[in-house]
Structure formats: C-alpha cells, structure tokens
Amino acid sequence: MTSSSQPPHIVTSHREIAASAERIFELIADPAQQPRWDGNDNLAEAAEGQRVRAVGEVFTVTLTVGSVRENRVVEFEEGRRIAWLPSEPGAQPPGHLWRWELEPAGAGRTKVTHTYDWSRLTDENRLPRARATTADRLRASLDRLAELAES
User: Fold this and answer.
1) What does the alpha-carbon distance between residue 32 and residue 112 come to, in Å, rounded to a whole number?
2) What InterPro entries is this protein classified in (predicted)?
C-alpha cells in the first residue's frame, strides 16, 4: 500500500497545441529534434537519421552528463502514439517508460499527452530521479514542443 505522500508512479501531463498531429509527431519521433524540446534539460544530442517508424527500433541519445542511452520503442502508431524504454547501451531497460499520445482536437489543433511511467522501475539508483519527474517537468516538454510546432 502506498501512502498519499508518495508521488505517483505514473505521471501525466497534457495540453492542446495549435499544430497538426503530423507536425508534432515529427518532432517527437525524430530523436535529433528531442533535445530542442526536452523540458528536463537531460538530452544533449542525438544523431540524425534515427527517425522512428516501428516498434522494436532502437535509437540512441547522448545525455547532458555525457552518457549514452539506448531507447527501445515499445509502442508505435504513426502520427498518434510512441513510447520507449531507455537503458544503458547493451543493458536491459530498468523499467521506466516515456510515452507520447496525440489526438486531433479540431482544425489544426492536437491534444498531446505526455506520460512518464516508472511503475516497473527496478533500478533503485534511478528512484530519486524518477520521483523528481513531476507533471510540471512533463509540462515543460509539452510547452517547448508547442513553441516549436506552432512556429
């Protein structure tokens, strides 16, 4: 049983963005674009040419601290949904998941839902960082994404 003082293990934030789902999805599904909108200021760079197109693909990013993460795509529907499990290169994912869901919300508008799910996180060293990933942090990514997509 979890006490109410503990943060939830699944954190979600959403907002409407004045851009098409296709435009927004391109910014999410292309890892080279992700550092531009990362509200956690965790991503330094990702190589060009890794645009995700299917479940099972793996893309790599370099974090601001210099380490590399492999991201295994576990959910994918073009223009609608993408989710991945990050891990250290060659290692099994420790169980935290990043998910993006896009839903048309009228002419030229899209409701975007960003979720961080650490309910299956097994690496105790990652728990403090997971607990610190709040809806406000997710919202920062959504706001930066909106700024890029709407410009």
Assistant:
1) 20
2) Polyketide_cyclase/dehydratase, START-like_dom_sf
Between CA 6 and CA 42 the distance in angstroms is 24
Tokens in use for 136?
């406000």
Place of tokens 């963005």: 17
How many residues are recorded in the chain?
151
Whether residue 106 has pLDDT greater than 70: yes
Domains and CATH numbers, the chain: 10-150 (3.30.530.20)
Q: Nearest CA to 141 among 7, 149, 23?
A: 149
Q: How much of the chain is in helix, strand and coil states, percent to nearest 5?
A: 25, 35, 40
**0.85 surpassed by pTM:** yes
> How many angstroms separate the CA atoms of 46 and 81, rounded?
20
Q: What is the pLDDT of residue 7?
A: 57
Rounded CA-CA distance 16/121 in Å is: 29
Q: Which ranges constitute the DSSP H helices of the chain?
A: 21-29, 34-37, 127-132, 135-150
Nearest to 141 by CA among 42, 72, 26, 22: 42
Strands 58-63 and 43-45, by their bridges, are antiparallel
40, 146 contact by CB (below 8 A): no
